[in-house]
Amino acid sequence: MTLPILRRAAIQAGAAGLLGAVGARASRASDIAWPSQAIRLVVPYTPGGSNDAVARPIAEKLQDVFGRTVVVENRPGATGAIGAAVVANAPADGHTLLLASSSFATASTMRRTTFDAIESFDPVASICDAPMLVVTKPGGFTDIRALVAFAKANPGRLQYGMAGMGGIGYFTQELFNRTAELRMEAIPYSGIGPASIDLVAGRIDFLMTTLASVRGLVEAGTVKVIAVSSPTRAPAMPDVPTIKEVLGVDFGVNVWWGILAPRGIPAGVRERLNVEITRAAASDSYTRFLAADGAKPAPSSVAEFSQMVREDILRWRHLANEVGIQAN
């Protein structure tokens, strides 16, 4: 369905304001001589991870739309800071983009960088989001209330795994500990893979991660998901309660993925990218791909996504200050 048809339908439905604005933005963007060369989509992590998996189908769809090569370039290191610096220092012409996620926001509190996570980038488009899962070892806790009760009665006894310092899993766990007033021992790993091995072996009590990281173990019934971190129940796991509803605490975290550009990208290019990325993320094939890993499309306007990214960075900076996490 074309934008003009959508606009007429919206007028008939009394919603011309919103879709008319979208159509106007897309029209302005179409007059810009862009892209004039290949587009580089920088993924600041290694191939094969969740960020890489989110990026590649989007790159393929943008390539089809724009008729230009969209190259996914993996630039791992320093918890994503190396790849982010590449984009922050690139020309702001819309030909270099960053695949960012929640760990972009959390890592910015842990590491001193040559860029500012807020001031050096223009958020372009939200792609998708997913909850974190509380996953327990075989024969372990079967509900989150029992885990919390044990942790309160036995401070420091429970051990949880995490994929290094500074990622979204680490910060979500810290927020959970602070919100529920718990003291548990963090066991850092080089990645979720090694942490999952120790979880299955019973060497740690639980971990907090995404479904994509432990789907095989969950589907096999080897480990149990006892809660999700999102404010509301996850569509992919409707029978699993949220931490918020079970404990009655103000807690809600979704992992997000989206596209950022160097600060100063032309407004028309930014809007056109937002329209096309949102459309790509909402396609049937991509929605099915996301659902298999417990994620869903998360469409938003440029303004909405910009506000979300800023608030997320500030949220984790505030937590870091509260619990004494120091940047290095």
TrEMBL record:
Q: What is this protein called?
A: Tripartite-type tricarboxylate transporter receptor subunit TctC
Ribosomal protein is among the record's keywords: no
Swiss-Prot/TrEMBL keywords: Receptor
SUPFAM superfamilies reported in the protein's UniProt record: Periplasmic binding protein-like II (SSF53850)
Domain of life, per UniProt, equals: Bacteria
What's this protein's family per the entry? Answer: Belongs to the UPF0065 (bug) family.
Q: Which InterPro entries match?
A: BUG, Bug_dom1
